[in-house]
Amino acid sequence: MTAPIDRTLAVLELLSLHPEGLTLLAVATRLDLPPSATHRLLNDLLRLGYVCQPVPQGPYALTLRLAALGLSWLGRTGLTDMAQPVLDRLAAACGELVRLSVADGDSLVWVAVAQGATSGLRYDPAREQGSAASLAYSASGRAWAASLPQDRALSLIAAQGLTPPEGAAQGSQLDLAGMIEVLAQTRAAGHGEAVDCFLDGMAAIAVALPAEGPSPGCLSIAGPAVRLTAARRAELLPALHAAAEEIMAIAPASQLLRGAP
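Above: the chain's sequence. Below: its structure in token form.
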């Protein structure tokens, strides 16, 4: 990581994972950068308004400027305006969390959400919004990977890694043979499932947005496993498929879905 732009983006990505901020030494250590160079990068970001340092000599943290850029861009794609009513209706009907993810190069990114659970146990993954879905362990990741050619799917999964997410149930670890079996089961079923392997106590089902060739994204329903049982998941599948088809029927209104590979 020698180019200034590489270092700058690495700093931004690191700080995005730590909303409480990090000290200069912590940033330098985690990115294996000289403290002097790290100080210059942080000062440049501070001057440009992307980073703040509320206390002199204290931690550096992101401002809202970067998030505002992302939200502004996402709004201009038309995706949220187009898809949100569909997500809201599905969430209200199923009483669980509904999420839309979109293919972005070699990743699947969660971009929109609707919460249908109004009381009791609920799954609220606010920290996951805008992040890449686990291709090996999330229902959305499995559904999207299954829509890809096998070689590409396995290559992307290997690049992301087969280490289960933090919070997954013990015994969730898959090897390559296990992943190949999961992909085969997902293709045969026509949807992806994840129970406890993404987060202990959570279950999810996901369908790839219908398209010829690789899907441009996925739609999922997730909730507590005690409520989202196998029978309940099967009951919700027709509504999930119908919502995915509805999104794709109006997909031309969104540049993001039109341009997805």
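The chain has a mean pLDDT of 89.
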